[in-house]
Amino acid sequence: MRLGRVPLELTGLSKTFASPEGPVVAVENVNAEIHDGEFVCILGHSGCGKSTVLSIIAGLQRATLGGVVIDGKEVTEPGADRAVVFQAPSLLPWLTARANIELAMASASNKTSRRQRRNAAVHYLELVGVADVADQLPHELSLGTQQCVSLARALSTQPRFLLLDEPFSTLDSLTRFDLQDTLLQVWEGERQIVVMVTHDIDEALYLSDRLILMTDGPAARVGEVLRLPFPRPRNRGAVLDHPQYLTHRHRVMDFLEHHAAQSRSAA
Strand ranges (DSSP E) for the chain? Predict the structure, then answer.
């Protein structure tokens, strides 16, 4: 049994957007608790409001009803305790990889010197395995390497919460697998609370402690929360060979197919 205050709570979170046809409810009455040291994936079909939920956790959007609570305080704006890695790397194109990280650190805290930030930037690039690109501009880097730099930039601010919005979805399979492994290795050492949005079942099963499964939109909600039995530290081969892997994979697929069929019949 967990004791004490829950670090991150989603409480009755709903978000409505205006459209030419009238109000559209993207997500409705989303409730979840996320605890210290957890890696949680929010999984669902495209359009189920996953990124909307993550954006509200980040403070980039406000909920229409309910909201996000961190340590008992409602989230109303972005904060240094949260760092986001988006689907696209979003690096500043006129700055080198190192300078992108130094700028993020300077924005998060004015307590470090320029030399400290420079040394720390190299450290975080080493952490994600791309220290050799420190003095290169984003356009000189592959998309996968740019995402490594984006991850290093996020980690450099030493956030309590690392929020990942499908960060590997545009990459080829081999690069995606490599970056998943990199993310896990870094997280095992840092142990931030991670909330990751994905539509990739195998990625979610490999990375997370729990899956928050979203029903299809509009008015998407939490349909099921699935705790995974795979021990840590994780090894891809060991996870795939785990006797419960296929059982959990089929359970997730059945959930997604069931709600997709419901959406088709309601259309």
Answer: 8-17, 24-34, 39-43, 65-70, 73-74, 82-85, 161-165, 193-198, 210-214, 222-227
Which of 222, 221, 199, 196 has its CA nearest to residue 209? 196
Q: Token pair for residue 235?
A: 């090894």
pLDDT in tens, 147-183: 999 999 999 999 999 999 999 988 889 989 999 999 9
CA distances to 14, 45, 222 from 23, in Å: 13, 21, 21
Distance CA 248, CA 229 (A): 9
Cβ(42)–Cβ(203) under 8 Å? Answer: no
Q: Which helix (H) or strand (E) holds 149?
A: helix 143-156
Query: Does the CA dihedral 110-115-117-118 come out positive or negative?
Result: positive
The four Cα atoms 148, 149, 152, 154 give a dihedral, to 10 degrees, of -110
Q: Is the distance from CB of 67 to CB of 74 less than 8 angstroms?
A: yes
The pLDDT tens digits for 70-117 are 999 999 999 999 999 999 888 999 999 999 999 999 988 777 888 999
Bridge partners, residue 161, by sequence: 82, 193
Query: Is the whole-model pTM more than 0.90?
Result: yes
What are the beta bridge partners of residue 69?
9, 74
Tokens of 260: 């997709």
**Cα torsion angle, 221, 226, 227, 230, sign:** negative
72 and 11 in contact (C-beta within 8 Å)?
A: no
